[in-house]
Every structure is written in structure tokens, then in C-alpha cells.
Design a protein that fits this description.
By secondary structure, the protein is an alpha+beta fold. Helices cover 60% and strands 12% of the residues. The protein has two helices and five strands. It has helices spanning 14-79, 117-128, and strands at residues 4-5, 11-12, 82-85, 103-105, 111-115. The strands form two sheets. The protein has a three-stranded antiparallel sheet. A hairpin with a 5-residue loop joins strand 4 (103-105) and strand 5 (111-115).
Length: 131
């Protein structure tokens, strides 16, 4: 029977061959474990970045929406309110009933009612909130 050659030119015995196989198995398992750990860490980082990006996008969209609502409120308040055509569905507001110019009628017969900024935004949200 021919001797099995080992590492560094030393003749291998069956026990050397078994220890070499054990070493290779351990090395393979360790390599697989390290590779799995690297992939798991990479996956965690990618998922975390995705959630962080989604959170930032949602925060920016919410801030933009809030700022738009604030701009509409400030603009309407700077005008002292806006008059809306009652023929198009604008109902007089009971909370503004004490104002003498809440409801006005033009000589042509058109009727308008005064809306404040909060009521305008509430009406917009009620009518177009699903857009």
C-alpha cells in the first residue's frame, strides 16, 4: 500500500489524514458561519436604511402638508376670510352668525357667505381628503 502524502512533504498516516479532514471541515463551517454573519449584518443595515429613508420621506411629506395648510390659513386670515358662493353648496356658518357681513347678496342675485380659514380647510378635507 502506498503512503498518503501529507502537508509539507511528510508522509501522511491515517490519523494525520483524519485530522486534516477535521481541520478542513472546521474551516469550511467557520467560513460558512462568518459568511452568514456578514450577510446577516448587511441585510440588517439595508433594512434599517430602508426604514430610515421611508421615515424621513414620510416626515418630509407631513411637514410639507402642514406647511401648506398653514399657508392657506395665514392667507385666508390676512384677507379676513373668503366669501363662497352659496349656489355651489357653501352653507352659512353658525359660528359666524354674529358678524353683520356674514351673508351678502349681489345686485345680480348671487348670494355669498363668509368662511374663516379653519372652515375652509375643514371643507377642503371633507370634499377632497381622499385625493
Amino acid at each position: 500500500m502506498k503512503p498518503i502524502s501529507g502537508l509539507a512533504g511528510t508522509p501522511a498516516t491515517p490519523s494525520n489524514h483524519l485530522s486534516e479532514c477535521k481541520f478542513l471541515r472546521r474551516f469550511a463551517w467557520l467560513s460558512a458561519a462568518v459568511w452568514t454573519l456578514i450577510l446577516a449584518v448587511s441585510l440588517y443595515i439595508n433594512i434599517r436604511q430602508t426604514f430610515d429613508n421611508a421615515y424621513e420621506l414620510a416626515r418630509h411629506k407631513a411637514t410639507d402638508s402642514f406647511n401648506k395648510d398653514q399657508a392657506i390659513r395665514l392667507w385666508i386670515n390676512s384677507l379676513g376670510g373668503v366669501y363662497l358662493d352659496t349656489a355651489r353648496g357653501a352653507q352659512p356658518l353658525h359660528c359666524l352668525a354674529t358678524l353683520p357681513d356674514r351673508d351678502i347678496a349681489l345686485p345680480g342675485g348671487k348670494a355669498y357667505t363668509l368662511y374663516d380659514s379653519g372652515s375652509v380647510l375643514k371643507d377642503i378635507q371633507r370634499k377632497y381628503g381622499l385625493l
